[in-house]
Amino acid sequence: MGYFMLIIFGGLPATGKSTIARAVARSAPAVFLRIDVIEQAMRSSVAFGEDIGPAGYIVGHAVAVSNLRLGHRVVADSVNPWPITRDGWRSVALTAGCPVLEVEIICSDKDEHRRRVEDRLADIPGLVLPDWDKVLARDYRPWPEADLSIDTAQTEPNDAVAMIIAAIKTKQARPGNAASSQ
């Protein structure tokens, strides 16, 4: 299908997901859609409260479809915790008629993951980051069908980006590789 593709990221907070997704968006190049940004903007502009439900994902899906239909690559960065959220992104690719690459980011070293959670600073004004207990309490389900699973306890961010860029090129080179063939 050529240039456009949806690159879906998922993983718990502080695994390195946004750092890698942002770098992939720069390198690909691609539109960068970070659900945390969308959700925080919604919280700041409307009295949603802390839990805004699926609203951020719904807005993200609509923005992604618009950009994919313009022929852009889109990097979708979100926790993406359940099969239903991943199915939602796959539906975006199907609607746009584009290939999809699914990337799960994990950090298998619990001590390192905890350090990252405790040391990081919010890069989105007003966003309250989860503490370690909230990260542990997240209902995050493993993503065995992801095209790539990258462990940031074992892989440096630049190497992860190179792996993902290579996978994008490989996937786009396959004939008939639209979301409908997934």
Protein described:
By secondary structure, the chain is an alpha/beta fold. The protein has helices spanning 17-27, 35-45, 55-69, 83-96, 110-119, 132-137, 157-173, and strands at 6-10, 31-34, 74-77, 100-106, 148-151. The chain has a single domain (6-181), classed as P-loop containing nucleotide triphosphate hydrolases (Rossmann fold, 3-Layer(aba) Sandwich), CATH 3.40.50.300. The chain has a 5-stranded parallel sheet, sandwiched between helices. The longest helix is centred in the last third of the chain and has 17 residues, at 157-173. The two termini are 14 Å apart. The mean pLDDT is 92.
What's the story with the biggest beta sheet?
5 strands, parallel
Identify the CATH class. Alpha Beta
What name does the CATH topology carry?
Rossmann fold
Total helices: the number is 7
Structural class: alpha/beta
CATH superfamily: P-loop containing nucleotide triphosphate hydrolases
Under the CATH scheme, the architecture is 3-Layer(aba) Sandwich
N- and C-termini, Cα separation:
14 Å
The residue fraction in helices comes out at 40-55%
Question: How much beta, percentage-wise?
Answer: 5-15%
- Globally, the shape reads globular
Number of domains: 1
Please give the order of strands in the largest beta sheet: 2-3-1-4-5
Instruction: Give average pLDDT, whole number.
Output: 92
The radius of gyration computed from the alpha-carbon positions, rounded to a whole number of angstroms, is 16 Å
* Strands, total number: 5
Query: H/E series, N to C?
Result: EHEHHEHEHHEH
Low-confidence residue ranges? none
